[in-house]
């Protein structure tokens, strides 16, 4: 684990110019590092058709094969990101336990529930950022042990408690703020703490509190790494703190920038909106309406169907700019060209999505090792069920100094 982390750190450092980019802004800059064909990568971008970009975007393997000509370490990088998969069998949910649980969530909680059960230590459970307590229901039912479901939203606590009571489960919802001092009072030394998709600092806070209180076991599946209180990621492990790899809040979003899964309509809207925004920026700059990038507020998707010209009038009205008569077709076309450039640049950045996610996961794993836990990392379901499919499990090693392996 330590070797993997160190090699990942080295490769991320070495290639940071490829992933520390903002494709949207890069596409606006006609003199960016890839815009001329002098670099091999720039030449490759220039030769890609929109159809090819789209094919590569939706076929990770093909994309990596093409990119590995320019980024020779890509195969090594990808092999570092392969985690053991948990067996794909799911716990059968007894009738009633699945009430109100959406389809994909069912798969997640049954698979994660099974893993929690296999690794269970302690006499109780703590379900951190529980929502309606879907995972807790399984754990209470399977183990008979008490589940404390800690959740911020009172409505979710009320719904979760009422369902648990109807099912006769030993679950106690506690409303509270994970960041408050009182949060620790929901914890006790008998609990196995679990968290399914607690965002950013919420799962970090759990790891800090739970390891401080020496809880017997911790199982989490992290998500939304960018939802942090500071401007930069604060590594937890000593190894990561000494790695010199810093990540801004914007860079913490990179692992979440999945290929759009929302179907053809959502993708069409996105392409149209981005092209319009990029074209509008070209119009503003070239017609000297403004001399810097000006963010335009979000727009109702139905307005997009009125076309680029209507978008420009709408944006100018919002920004109190007066729009002269211009060649809208020219700027619409620039917007479209910029859009495909942005998509091409994103292909490179997306090759680093999983490596960054695994780096963040291993930071937590190494922190728990440093804190006296035996740790394993795996995937608990396939990527289609949820791209946030990493699972970190830690069991307390009593009176034994944790070691890296
Ligand atoms: C992504 S949801 C996951 C819910 C549940 N674990 C699941 O997978 O269905 C994150 C949950 O964290 C809760 N939450 C957000 N901020 C919180 C805070 N400061 N303290 C406690 N819970 C919080 C939200 O209300 C939400 O229910």
UniProtKB/TrEMBL annotation:
SUPFAM superfamilies: S-adenosyl-L-methionine-dependent methyltransferases
GO MF annotations, alphabetized: methyltransferase activity
Any GO BP annotation: methylation
InterPro entries cross-referenced by the UniProt entry: Methyltranfer_dom, SAM-dependent_MTases_sf
UniProt entry keywords in alphabetical sequence: Methyltransferase, Transferase
Domain Methyltransferase, first and last residues per copy: 106-230
Pfam families: Methyltransf_32
The keyword Transferase is assigned to this record: yes
Name assigned to this protein: SAM-dependent methyltransferase
Organism: Vibrio gelatinilyticus
């Amino acid at each position: 684990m330590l070797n993997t982390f160190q090699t990942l750190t080295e490769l991320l450092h070495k290639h940071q110019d490829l992933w520390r980019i903002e494709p949207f802004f890069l596409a606006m800059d006609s003199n960016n590092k890839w815009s001329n064909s002098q670099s091999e990568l720039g030449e490759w971008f220039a030769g890609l058709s929109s159809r090819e970009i789209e094919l590569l975007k939706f076929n990770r393997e093909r994309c990596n094969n093409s990119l590995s000509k320019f980024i020779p370490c890509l195969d090594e990088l990808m092999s570092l990101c392969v985690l053991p998969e948990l067996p794909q069998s799911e716990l059968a949910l007894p009738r009633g336990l699945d009430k109100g649980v959406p389809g994909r969530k069912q798969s997640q909680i049954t698979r994660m529930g099974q893993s929690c059960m296999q690794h269970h230590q302690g006499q109780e459970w703590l379900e951190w950022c529980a929502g309606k307590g879907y995972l807790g229901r399984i754990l209470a039912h399977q183990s008979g042990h008490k589940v404390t479901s800690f959740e911020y939203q009172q409505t979710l606590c009320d719904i979760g408690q009422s369902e648990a009571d109807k099912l006769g489960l030993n679950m106690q919802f506690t409303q509270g703020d994970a960041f408050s001092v009182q949060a620790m009072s929901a914890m006790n030394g008998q609990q196995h703490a679990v968290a399914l998709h607690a965002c950013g600092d919420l799962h970090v806070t759990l790891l800090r509190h739970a390891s401080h209180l020496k809880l017997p076991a911790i199982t989490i599946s992290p998500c939304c790494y960018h939802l942090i209180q500071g401007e930069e990621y604060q590594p937890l492990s000593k190894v990561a703190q000494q790695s010199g790899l810093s990540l801004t809040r914007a860079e913490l979003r990179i692992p979440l920038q999945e290929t759009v899964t929302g179907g053809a309509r959502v993708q069409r809207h996105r392409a149209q909106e981005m092209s319009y925004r990029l074209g509008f920026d070209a119009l503003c700059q070239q017609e000297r309406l403004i001399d810097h990038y000006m963010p335009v507020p979000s727009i109702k998707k139905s307005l997009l169907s009125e076309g680029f010209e209507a978008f420009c009038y709408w944006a100018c009205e919002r920004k109190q700019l007066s729009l002269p008569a211009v060649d809208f077709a020219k700027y619409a076309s620039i917007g479209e060209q910029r859009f495909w450039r942005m998509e091409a640049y994103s292909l490179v950045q997306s090759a680093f999505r999983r490596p960054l996610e695994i780096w963040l996961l291993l930071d937590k794993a190494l922190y728990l090792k440093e804190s006296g836990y035996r740790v394993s990392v795996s995937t608990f379901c396939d990527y289609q069920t949820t791209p946030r499919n990493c699972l970190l499990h830690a069991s307390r090693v009593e009176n034994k100094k944790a070691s890296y392996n």
